[in-house]
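Summarise what follows for lecture notes:
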Amino acid sequence: MFSHIMVGANDIEASKAFYDATMAVLGAKPGMIDPKGRVVYMHDGALFMVTKPIDGAPACSANGGTIGFTMASPEQADAWHAAGVAAGGTACEDPPGVRESPFGKLYLAYLRDPAGNKLCGMHRIG
């Protein structure tokens, strides 16, 4: 359904360090900087990019927005969360763990990146 996801950041170096750490847990290579100064991650046919806003205004996170990353296991979600916190991210929501939802049991881990974008590592249980 999606071709790519791009988030804004004011400090590209801090965001690259954060995403290099969290994407490595998923098996992705470190991000590369394109000619426009954007950080680009390519993994499993998907693109995830970080950029300074084109309009020159400061980057801000979406109010109510969350970007979800598929995790292979609860342990991978925990490692992803720990890598993100160690690389300048902030834990948010409840601690990583199982949540009941209309979609069944989910193991969820939430972070905010250095620019405040809300991320979720999700593993479907059963």
User: Anything to note?
Assistant: The longest helix spans residues 12-25. The radius of gyration is 14 Å.
